[in-house]
Write a structure and sequence with these properties.
InterPro entries: C-N_Hydrolase, C-N_Hydrolase_sf, Nitrilase/CN_hydratase_CS, Nitrilases_CHs
EC number: 3.5.5.4
Strand content: 25-35%
Distance between the termini: 58 Å
Keywords: Hydrolase
Radius of gyration: 20 Å
CATH architecture: 4-Layer Sandwich
Largest sheet: 8 strands, mixed
Oligomer: single chain
Number of helices: 7
Structural class: alpha/beta
Number of strands: 18
CATH superfamily: Carbon-nitrogen hydrolase
Family: Belongs to the carbon-nitrogen hydrolase superfamily. Nitrilase family.
CATH topology: Nitrilase/N-carbamoyl-D-aminoacid amidohydrolase
Number of domains: 1
Strand order of the largest sheet: 1-2-18-3-4-7-8-9
Catalytic activity: 3-cyano-L-alanine + 2 H2O = L-aspartate + NH4(+)
Helix content: 10-25%
Length: 347
């Protein structure tokens, strides 16, 4: 492992952790970004994203994965003024500001991210807070090197207090995209601990499994290694590295649950971003030291070698005993029969 300075775009924004590759004809270079949001400032966060992508592209990265909620922000430490049976006026105002920092999908921010992927000729996987009317979703967006928006995954199950600020995804946004570098998909944070949801991705043939997260604990690494072995796929987990000063200062923004307000230089999310091979070998990371670009060369032949040992939805499955049915139709709260009749006539 080495820290590699950039020579292509002046001084580097942050250091890249570089792991050497093997046969270049069967490898791709992937980067997971470990960096913080500019909280409540989406234009500045988009500017930062472009600097990070430019830096990764200067190292030859073909796939760049950002953390959970990078655009829009992960509201770590906030309760939004909620207790059972009441919500405070200050908490409601905090949600208004958080809602304003989210992005519409599609929308101008999505267009900018698509242009960014096209400009630097990369596949881009970006964690965002999606605004759909007055409901927010924790979402991952996918873009190709031609500058096309491919689609999204909405977090199916927010964790704990996340459920008061984010809506729930459904089975219609669990995509796996077939690309020239392999089949790419993503689950977000603790969704990755849901065995049936992982199996849905395995059933779609996922080969490059992206896991944007907000979990910096050591035990997260065990989950990532297990998924790589279980799925016979590369696992790319990206987390933010944040200090208290990356969030608004008190009293406007207060970290609840702590005995005392953290100092501005305190680390409130230590990262732990990592890249793991289908055989469970850690290729790069985990990094707990600061903001970083963490890169590795992925030998795609390793997928076949791993599947020879264990193919969870192939030769190691027993569908006559155990099987999974995924309901992948959109679940809409309101349907209009006249619209359905019009669609059937047009067909």
């Amino acid at each position: 492992m080495a820290l590699v300075p950039s020579s292509a775009v002046g001084s580097p924004l942050i250091a890249e952790v570089d792991m050497g590759g093997s046969d270049p004809s069967s490898t791709i270079r992937a980067t997971v970004v470990q960096a913080s949001t500019v909280f409540y400032d989406t234009p500045a966060t988009l500017d930062k994203a472009e600097r990070l992508v430019a830096e990764a592209a200067s190292y030859g990265s073909q796939l760049v994965v950002f953390p959970e909620a990078f655009i829009g922000g992960y509201p770590r430490g906030s309760t939004f003024g909620v207790t059972i049976g009441s919500r405070s006026a200050k908490g409601k105002e905090e949600f208004r500001k958080y809602h304003a920092a989210a992005i519409d999908v599609p929308g101008p921010e999505v267009d900018r991210l698509a242009a960014l992927a096209g400009k630097y000729k990369i596949f881009l996987v970006m964690g965002v807070i999606e605004r759909a009317g007055y409901t927010l979703y924790c979402t991952v967006l996918f873009f190709d090197p031609q500058g096309q928006y491919l689609g999204k995954h909405r977090k199916l199950m927010p964790t704990a207090l996340e459920r008061i600020i984010w809506g729930f995804g459904d089975g219609s946004t669990i995509p796996v995209f077939e690309t020239p570098m392999g089949k790419i998909g993503a689950l977000i944070c603790w969704e990755n601990r849901m065995p049936l949801l992982r199996t849905a991705l395995y059933g779609k043939g996922i080969e490059i499994y992206c896991a944007p997260t907000a979990d910096a604990r050591d035990v997260w690494q065990a989950s990532m290694v297990h998924i790589a072995l279980e799925g016979g796929c590369f696992v790319l987990s990206a987390n933010q590295f944040c200090r208290r000063k990356d969030y608004p200062p008190p009293p406007d923004y207060v970290f609840a649950g702590a005995e005392e307000e953290p100092s501005m230089d305190s680390v409130v999310c230590a990262g732990g971003s990592v890249i793991i091979s289908p055989s469970g070998i850690v290729l790069a990371g985990p990094n707990y030291e600061g903001e970083a670009l963490i890169s590795a060369d992925l030998d795609l032949g390793e997928i076949v070698r791993a599947k020879f040992d264990f193919d969870v939805v192939g030769h190691y499955s027993r569908p006559e005993v155990l099987s999974l049915t995924v309901k992948d139709d959109p679940q809409n709260p309101v349907s209009f029969t006249s619209a359905e009749k019009t669609e059937s006539i047009q067909k």
